[in-house]
Amino acid sequence: MPTSTPVATPDTEPARKRRKEARPQELLDAALQVFVEKGFAATKMEDVANLASVSKGTVYLYFPSKEELLKAVIRHNLSLTIAQGGDLVAQFPGSTHELLHLLAMTWWERVGETQASGIFKLIITEVRNFPEFAEFYAAEVIEPGRQLLKALLQRGIARGEFRAVPLDDTVHALIFPMLMLCLHKHSVGACSGDVATQDPRAFIHNHIDLMLHGLCCQPGQH
């Protein structure tokens, strides 16, 4: 007895459309997980397809190569967060002290606490073998991040909240411990718990407090 072809109903069509619209995000999530777990060189497009429960052809439909897929992962997880931080710096009405704390904690929520924190280990371990990614990462992440923090420091200096400091050196002093926290999370910290990985928010709070106030006692303090 012949079988009839299923006919799409008004209920199934929107579901299929929603699925199609969500697919790029699903592929990016799967790619992020595979890249962090296996590294760039060892990752295959089939790995991403299998994790996302789609065919390899579907991955290539959205991302023409593994290189473009990694670039999309970095843009989605890091470049976008930096751009949103720039908007926050431009619009924030409060003190620069409050803004610095907010930026640091927001960055940790969106990057540090997520799988995206593994991107930094991926870049450090593989960038020497793929120099084109060094240029891409510098343009998409390092330079925008540097400009974001320089704008924050300049805001504080202009408002009389911060003393005049060497901007580039201070940017590095701010960001390097945050990056190290992510690297530690995906290396030694994954094997043995310590204060930093057990309570990273406390670490970040103390780091920002140290940057703002230093080690020396202020006049009248002991």
Care to describe what's here?
- With 222 residues, the chain is mostly helical.
- The chain has a domain of 143 residues: Tetracycline Repressor, domain 2, CATH 1.10.357.
- Helices cover 71% and strands 0% of the residues.
- It is built from ten helices and no strands.
- It is elongated and about 65 Å long.
- It starts with 11 loop residues before the first helix and ends in a 9-residue tail after the last helix.
- The mean pLDDT is 88.
- It comes from Caldimonas caldifontis.
- Keywords: DNA-binding, Transcription, Transcription regulation.
- Pfam families: TetR_C_11 (PF16859), TetR_N (PF00440).
- GO terms for molecular function: DNA-binding transcription factor activity; transcription cis-regulatory region binding.
Q: In short, what is this structure?
A:
This protein has 10 helices and no strands. It has 222 residues and is mostly helical. The radius of gyration is 22 Å and the shape is elongated.
- Give the overall pLDDT as a whole number: 88
- The class by helix and strand makeup works out as mainly alpha
CATH topology descriptor of the domain at 71-213: Tetracycline Repressor, domain 2
The helix content is over 70%
Low-confidence parts, pLDDT < 50 over ≥5 residues?
none
CATH architecture of the domain at 71-213: Orthogonal Bundle
Number of helices: 10
CATH superfamily of the domain at 71-213: Tetracycline Repressor, domain 2
What is the total tally of β strands?
0
The biggest beta sheet is recorded as:
none
CATH class of the domain at 71-213: Mainly Alpha
Overall shape: elongated
Classify the beta-strand content into a percent band.
Answer: under 5%
InterPro entries: Homeodomain-like_sf (IPR009057), HTH-type_TetR-like_transc_reg (IPR050109), HTH_TetR (IPR001647), Tet_transcr_reg_TetR-rel_C_sf (IPR036271), TetR_C (IPR011075)
DNA-binding region: 44-63
Protein name: TetR family transcriptional regulator
Region (Disordered): 1-23
